[in-house]
Amino acid sequence: MPLLESPFAQLDLIRQPEQQNEPLQAFDAADEYLLAHLAQQGVSAETRVLVLNDSFGALAGSLSGHVRVTSSGDSFLGALALEKNLARNGQAFDAVRHVPASEAWDGPFDRVLIRVPKTLALLEEQLIRLQGLLAPGAQVIAGAMIKHLPRAAGDLLERYIGPVQASLAVKKARLLIATPQDREPAVSPYPTRYRLDAPAIELLNHANVFCREGLDIGTRAFLPHLPGNLGSAQVADLGCGNGVLAIASALRNPQAHYTLVDESFMAVQSARENWRAALGEREVLIRAGDGLAGQAPQSLDVVLCNPPFHQQQVVGDFLAWRMFQQAREALVVGGALYIVGNRHLGYHSKLARLFRGVEQVAATPKFVILKARK
Fold this sequence. Notes:
Radius of gyration: 22 Å
Family: Belongs to the methyltransferase superfamily. RlmG family.
Number of domains: 2
Domain Methyltransferase small: 201-371
CATH topology of the largest domain: Rossmann fold
Helix content: 25-40%
Domain RlmG N-terminal: 2-181
Shape: globular
Strand order of the largest sheet: 5-4-3-6-7-9-8
Distance between the termini: 37 Å
Oligomer: single chain
Strand content: 25-35%
EC number: 2.1.1.174
Subcellular location: Cytoplasm
Largest sheet: 7 strands, mixed
């Protein structure tokens, strides 16, 4: 894999989660462009830089030791990559302060470097949170590969920060440079809320939650077929999002014990608030994590999962396959993984390679609900 070379550092970077013969590198031309632009401006050890949505630590890792850098994003895997890549390049694993997207930042900041996220609601929430945190003379610079840079990103910068100048394209990357101006204080439209009829609950969704405006159709297909009569089973909702699968299951299984895991900090924040609203003080473990990587082997009876088929802009089944492997490891013998998936993804044959038996619980024209028994 090539090294990331910038005026600040030369770094050997890896992606998270790691996979053998990784086809993708952990940085791109937009990272290089942001670092080159910052170096041209001139910064010192006292310059306070906030880095947002740094996928694998390319920006924060390069700046560590050169400026006072804070990194913030909504990905547990991104935070893990930053730790690993700092250590991999001879720096202390905690050399950069990382703040989950669900928590507030401590300003003021002289420069803000933003990798434009796939979910523009997250960008909007982040720009609103910058109110009152920009030092005099500050600049906000957003970068992306042109194919992933919608016009709306510039509109959001203009609305919440100030006039925007677009850079020339370099290696198919572009920067949007915003100069802060006084703005009327903005009230965040997040979190959003929607109601379900069955079960009769209201769900709160922070800015980066998948399908935050309404229940996604895969989950809608899954809900009527969640297992009942679980007794005191240990149940995990893997990739829990706003927690809807676990909450619906818990309402049907009052004695069962639940663990909810997602790699999005905002999803975990949403799930925690939704669980409390629907189930009060009922005991639960809700955490941000790399799937079930930290789960003890053979400690679960049931795993519920609506697996993702992309990581940021990269589409594929690597994450889903990894989740299936993690579920198999964590389940007791005789335990079961229940999933919903698009028919065309062919999950049945994939699960059959890992599990003793796979059966179709239900189907719609677009989705299948499968039960895989260990």
